[in-house]
Design brief:
Blueprint: E1 3-7, H1 13-25, E2 28-31, H2 40-49, E3 67-71, E4 74-75, E5 78-79, H3 81-90, E6 96-103, H4 109-123, E7 129-134, H5 147-152, H6 157-171
Parallel strand pairs: 1-2, 1-3, 3-6, 6-7
Antiparallel strand pairs: 4-5
Helix pairs in contact: 1-6
């Protein structure tokens, strides 16, 4: 059994998290990229009209024996469209999977539940875990938050070490992929 971390990142934050997490757990890291540069306007249009962009992965990267960990932002309470395009290539997932995200926002438990349900519906099985981390939690206490500040924030090595340690702690002593072999 192989653990595969498959990531998409618009700003680089989720990419950095995926790379650091993959390294920490000894997993292979695959990146979803796009042939054309993404813009904020394109993000809004794709979410508004539920369109999937062209991506540079085929969907053949995951086998039944793998444990897939998807890492991506979510936009407007939905899976980021490049990851959604990849998941649509899979139609259903032949293996167990989990999801990680470093988000600009996420304060609404209802949105979190809808997100978990969307993943399960897209892939024909519920995720083993969904862990969402907030950029706001990386900022100094008392920092006045704004959309601009959160969107422009870039994680540093200290942030990544803390995030990976907290994710591993949240997964517990027996991560879900241990039962997959």
């Amino acid at each position: 059994m192989k653990i595969k971390v498959i990531s998409y990142s618009f700003t680089g934050n989720n990419e950095a998290l995926a790379a650091e997490f993959a390294k920490a757990i000894g997993a292979e890291h695959l990146r979803i990229t796009e042939p054309k540069k993404r813009t904020a306007g394109k993000i809004v249009r794709e979410n508004l009209f539920n369109r999937d962009p062209k991506i540079n992965l085929s969907g053949d990267e995951i086998s039944v024996d793998d444990f897939a960990i998807f890492v991506s932002p979510f936009w407007f309470g939905k899976i980021a469209s490049p990851l959604r395009a990849y998941l649509n290539l899979l139609k259903s997932i032949p293996s167990k999977y989990g999801f990680l995200s470093l988000c600009v926002g996420y304060d609404n438990p209802e949105t979190y539940q809808k997100f978990k349900i969307e993943l399960g519906q897209m892939l024909g099985r519920a995720p083993e875990f969904v862990i969402l981390k907030r950029i706001a939690d990386l900022l100094p206490p008392g920092q006045e938050l704004s959309q601009k500040l959160l969107t422009e924030y870039r994680v540093n090595q200290e942030d990544l070490k803390m995030l990976v340690a907290s994710i591993i702690e949240e997964l517990g002593d027996t991560p879900p992929w241990f039962g997959n072999s």
